[in-house]
Each structure stands twice: as C-alpha cells, then as structure tokens.
Amino acid sequence: MSDTAIFPDLKGASVFITGGGSGIGAALSEGFLRQGAKVAFVGRSDASAFVARMEAETGNPPLFIQCDITDIPALKSAIEQAAEAHGPITTLVNNAANDQRHATLDVDEEFWDWAQAINLKAYFFACQAVLPGMQAAGGGSIVNFTSISYMMGNSGYPAYTTANAGINGMTRSLAREFGADRIRVNALAPGWVLTDKQLDKWATPEALAAHLERQCLKDHLAPQDIVGSTLFLASATSRMITGQTLVVDGGVVVTG
C-alpha cells in the first residue's frame, strides 16, 4: 500500500467495516490498520488468510467475523461482538454491496428484495446498531458507500442504482437526526474501481477505454484510491462535514 496521510485520532479507534476482506473493503481494512485502529470486519467468505497477512504486514491483526449482511440478526450480533472486543464502535464503514447486472424486465420480486437487502437494508440496520454506542461515546463517524452509477443515470442494474440513491437519502436524514450527538454521517461515491471482481466480470478493453474517456483524470481507479478519502471522513479532520456525498471518480461526474 502506498503512503497515505496519518490521522492521529484514528489510532486505537474502534472501526467496523462490512465486506472488509476483499476488493475495496480489504484496502479499507488495511488502511485503518495502518493508522493503528482496532478493525473488525464482516464478509461471507473466509478471510483468515487476509487476517494473517495483515497481522504479518501491519502488526495489527483485524477481527474477522464471517457473516452474510442480509441476515440482519447475524449482522447485529457481529457488531455487538466487535464492540465487546474493541470498545464502542466509533467508525462504521458500510462498504459491502453487489452490483450484479440485470435488465428491468427480468427482475422479479425475489431478486428485487435481495438487491435491496444487500445494497440498502443492511446499511440502515448497521447504522441503527452502532448509533447507541456512538451516542454513549460522545460521537462517531459513519461512511456509507454509494456509487456514481445513479448520478450518471446508468442502465443495466436498476435495482442497484435505486439502492444507491436511497443510501444518499438515508445518509442525509441520519446526519440531521444524530448531529446533536456529534455523530457525522456521510456518503462516499466511488467511480469504476478496478477490483478483481470488476476485472473478471465487466472490464473489457472497450468498456475501460470508453470509461476512461469520460474521466477528467486519465488513470483508472484502484481500491487504494478510495482509502484516503474514507480515512478523512472517519477522522476528526472532517469534524464539521456531515450529510455530504464525496465523489471519488477521476472526474466523471463534475458538479458545481
């Protein structure tokens, strides 16, 4: 991992990350571990090899709890376990998502419910589970990962983009409701980050070239490019930023 800024207040912080063992999530876990944070993360697949590598490379092993985030009782139990191990969670990163491609006319109720369960419902209940601990601790930071997909009006995954838009609405409402508790709630919207999954499934040379043409900055995004922004939103450096969406996409979505 390349050098990144140090945020002293993250040292010893109790951090919980969904999907923290692969893709962007693994880069986030490593980033927080290198800050000296106490990191717990959940994922569906066994991440013991990743945990061992992080311990060897950072000297700061994360706590891995195997969990399907669509199982809300299991997700809440994992959050409780993390808080017992590391103290009240003061940083929550809702990162896990699934952008499986689908056509509108092929979507049935079962698929719709699954897409919302993993991409939106789990986010809400993870927030709900950590909020009392943050209130008791005198504050905290929640970072909800969304995507530029809905901002672009992309087709090919309407259930996913619907959830993305919902994440932004939820983020703003929670920021307003819990701001008096010094709990900050922000969203982070990556562009097309070339994880192994993206490279395996959808990153054809033609698609990559077309997307790069839309970016202002002519470099493809890697998982590491998302870490610094997440650390910033988690740290007291951004203490007066809440209810916002930070776009990290190389300049595909240009606002203002």
From TrEMBL:
InterPro entries assigned to the protein according to its UniProt record, in alphabetical order: KR_dom, NAD(P)-bd_dom_sf, SDR_fam
MF GO annotations: 2-dehydro-3-deoxy-D-gluconate 5-dehydrogenase activity
Cite the CDD domains for this sequence: SDR_c
Residue ranges crossing the lipid bilayer per the database entry: none
Q: Name the EC number(s).
A: 1.1.1.127
The UniProt keywords, alphabetically, are:
Oxidoreductase
Q: Does the record bear ATP-binding in its keywords?
A: no
**Domain Ketoreductase, residue spans:** 13-205
> Pfam families from the xrefs?
adh_short_C2 (PF13561)
Q: Does the keyword Glycosyltransferase apply?
A: no
**Which family does the record claim for this protein?**
Belongs to the short-chain dehydrogenases/reductases (SDR) family.
Q: What is this protein called?
A: 2-dehydro-3-deoxy-D-gluconate 5-dehydrogenase
What is the source species?
Answer: Phaeobacter italicus
